[in-house]
Amino acid sequence: MNGRAPKSLVLVTVDCWRADHAGFMGYPAPTTPFLDGLAAESLVFPKAIVTGAPTYYSFPGLLASRFPLSLGREVVGLAPGEVTLATVLERSGYETAAFVAANPYLSARFGYQQGFGVFRDFLSEEAARSYVMNSGERRQQAAQRPRARTRFNQRVAKLAHAFGPVGAMYDELYFQYCQRIAAPKNESWDSLRRFPAADVLVNEACTWLASLGQRPFFLWLHLMDPHAPYYPPPQAIEAMGAGRVRPARGRYLNESWNRCDLGPGRLRKYRDEIVRLHDAGVRWVDIQMARLVEALRASGRWESCVVALTADHGEEFLDHGGRFHLPSRAYQESLHVPLLLRVPGVGKKVSSEAPFSHLHLAPTILDAVGIEPPPEFEGRSYWREVQAGAGWGLAVSESVGRCTNPMDPEKRLGSRVLVVQDRRHKLVLDFERRTEELFDLDADPGEQRILPQDAEKTIRVRLLRAALQHLEGRDREPKAALALAARVRQFGLELSRPEMPSETAAT
Ligand SMILES: [Zn+2]
Fold this sequence. Notes:
about 15% strand, four-stranded antiparallel beta sheet, 18 helices, binds zinc ion, single chain
């Protein structure tokens, strides 16, 4: 301990929330009126960068201050026995609880319960199982599912596809038929939603907070409201000023947005409405954060409570032609997230525009609450620099580009996408495609123009050196035992065949 009375900590991570969709980051739509007020008395980081995307590449950085591929590409999640923000705080005498809105990659299967006295992941057995399937098992399951198309329909489809454009026309007609005529009746936003909404988690958190004694606490909430498919509570849509949207319209938009047979050109007509639904998810987080803070105030704990609020990665809305959040897509809409740190007694400082890596968040938070960061963390505390407003400079992010399903060894062991960025420039090395792309984020914030190979040689060399240092420079020896334990667990998961799989795709 640092000689100060330890403060309590609330960590809120929001899935799929990019930096430019937060009011306090300059977004014009009213996604975060409550959080904008909180930001006015908090430290706001203009450029917080995740250690990797999606969820499974982001959270080792967030909770264990460790690059996602440090233990080897075979390792998914946190290793058994790994030191994390939660284990450090629990060891320091904190009451700890986590409420996670049914993101299977953040379940006990992948080590995320470690250090939490109370851990609720809201996953049904069935949903949890479906996530430990590899692609072959998913295909097998899909084949067993009752067919949406009758045998007759399938014959017509096959025939239509034999005649080029007629196939596309058939697909379109069939999609419209399913959506408009054969659609389920009496559906509601609640029945369509795939993850528990933020109010459900905040209710649980408030009940837990009310049960606590005087010891400091650590509460982690992971909220999925802005995650696809986008089915926000209707109150949030209305709060955004979008009027009433019928659930059937919401389903039609989501199903259209999810279509694999449409290119960016044809998807574009759904984009604005889809963004409005996603934003309403953020607004629901904002409304529920207001409730949580009110409960903390009412219990007299607010004044000794540090709050860290961020996202595990962003979301694409055709900015570069893509949707959702794939590991191969290293654009800022995926890597740049909001980060707000509220520490009682610390006034608002203008933070440096340099990228602040999530790698340093856990040690910096620990320092801010008054606990010594552990030596196992790869990041370091920037608490002193954060209070001064500057002093950090470079962020590294990494993922395996083709790993859209980490339970699939073939995908998991693919080549790395490595991103190094400083305040102005960003270098993206894709070892699968064998490409090296340098962007000037000041002149080209939308990353539309790759700089020519002979441009900015000094900068390129500096960022390449940092990339090399990242790949070679770390002492892996002490981590061998952790990596081995995690691989044994992975082996066990892959041996246990799911009995009741279902279709899901959340990251
Ligand atoms: Zn995520």
